[in-house]
Amino acid sequence: MLKETGFGSIHLGVSGFAVGVINLLCRLSLLLLVWLGAETALAVTYRAAIDDSRWELESSKFSCRLSQAVPAYGRALFEREAGEDVRFSLRAVEQVSASAQALLVAEAPPWRPGIAPQMIATLKVDAVSGDIDVEPGYARQMLAFLYKGLVPTFTRSDWQGTAEALRVGVSAANFGSAYQDYSGCVEGLLPVNYRQVARTAVLFPPATYVLSDSARARLDLIALYVLHDDSVQSVYVDGHSDNLGRRLLNRDLSKKRAEAVAEYLKVKGMDESMITMRFHGERYPVVPNNSAANRDRNRRVTIRLERE
Question: Model pTM?
Answer without folding.
Answer: 0.81
